[in-house]
Design brief:
Two copies of one chain form a homodimer. The first copy, chain A, has 185 residues and is mainly alpha-helical. Helix content of chain A is 56%, strand content 8%. Chain A has a domain at 34-157: Arc Repressor Mutant, subunit A (Orthogonal Bundle). Chains A and B meet through helix 1, helix 5 and helix 6 of A and helix 1, helix 5 and helix 6 of B. Chain A binds a DNA duplex (30 and 30 nucleotides) through residues 47, 49, 66-68, 76-84, 86-87, 98, 100-106, 166-167.
Chain lengths: 185, 185
DNA sequence: GAGTAGAACTTGACGCGTCAAGTTCTCTTC
DNA sequence: GAAGAGAACTTGACGCGTCAAGTTCTACTC
């Protein structure tokens, strides 16, 4: 509650159109992730986030990534990643390895079993994304969604000036690839 | 890898535009709620969801609602609501009351303290919604967002045919009002 | 070359959401 | 009028994410 000092700007409440847009937005913010998560759990016994982790790894040429890079790519804290990767490791879907030399590095590598899990899960995931979102949209809506997402991303970053500056490559939105990376079949 | 049996529909991977839209969407799905939540926590010591609960109550003429109705309006399970309301009750922001007669009803009523908390939190919340989302959008994007949200909502409901049928009024998206309901000042 | 800064994790405690089970009512049916 | 069926919650255990601390390294500095 900071409201005492000076002429605080009057609150601009949302008008009809804005309110409707915001309301509609909560379907995207709340129902969509819940639906995707539930389906992933049902069809592949994976959390949406776990799928992201495995999926990102599967896109790497050697199916390997350093923990901090993985964290950046999946928009997770290192701590969260560490916990999740620990569990996935116990399930045999990936393996960690301490890298000697430079700093205290660790990499995670997808195992064969892990790779098979991603490949099996990917079609269902893409189908869900189409079913719940993409296939219902007209081209111009697809374009609008793209712009809106970019605007949101920019607005949020504007709020937290830097957050870090060293490790992360181009700070990218969480990726959920178009399909698993093909290797020699 | 399941691809052997029969003519399983080929997976339609996302093309460039679709992928970009999906990627952008994850900013809305992931970063936006996190940002709103963090800000609400910082400015009002409330979870986004707790704010929703208090806010919905504040919009009722008597600041009172039956638990199941509240659950429907906030898109939460009765169990989750029960836990959250329990905590809010301990903080003195609302009070529960068993209603004798018809079934095993319980209502939650906002206390004066709870009302003051919502009123204090609302301007910041609306400001955040504007800052992170609404104010960055052109009118046509606002309209598109509205349509996209509606499409997502419909698509998800299509997936889970009924879910119940008795209690809930028009199944509505979670509301986060335009401003706290005015009473006699 | 010892000390300090700091990057890159890991770990444990704690809080919140979910799931399954339990409780308490009413209403129907025979 | 006794037995179900079922609506409307509540409760407890468990899992996952967060936050604060701890651990290991490298690199710089004097």
């Amino acid at each position: 509650m900071k409201k005492s000092t000076g002429p605080v700007a009057e609150t601009r409440w949302l008008n009809g159109d804005e309110l409707a847009a915001w309301l509609a937005n909560s379907a995207i913010m709340i129902s969509l992730p819940a639906a995707l998560d539930a389906r992933m759990q049902r069809e592949a016994q994976l959390t949406f986030f776990e799928y992201m982790v495995l999926s990102v790894l599967s896109e790497q040429p050697d199916r390997t990534m350093q923990m901090s890079a993985l964290a950046a790519r999946t928009a997770a804290s290192l701590s969260r990643l560490s916990h999740v990767v620990g569990r996935l490791e116990k399930r045999g879907l990936l393996a960690r390895k301490r890298i000697p030399g430079s700093g205290r590095r660790t990499t995670a590598t997808l195992t064969e079993a892990g790779y098979e899990v991603v490949v099996a899960a990917a079609p269902g995931h893409v189908a869900a994304v189409r079913e719940y979102l993409i296939d219902d949209l007209e081209p111009h809506e697809l374009a609008a969604l793209r712009r809106i997402g970019a605007a949101v991303d920019a607005a949020i970053k504007r709020g937290q000036p830097d957050a870090s500056s060293a490790a992360s490559p181009p700070p990218e939105a969480p990726t959920i690839h178009s399909g698993p990376r093909r290797t020699a079949d």
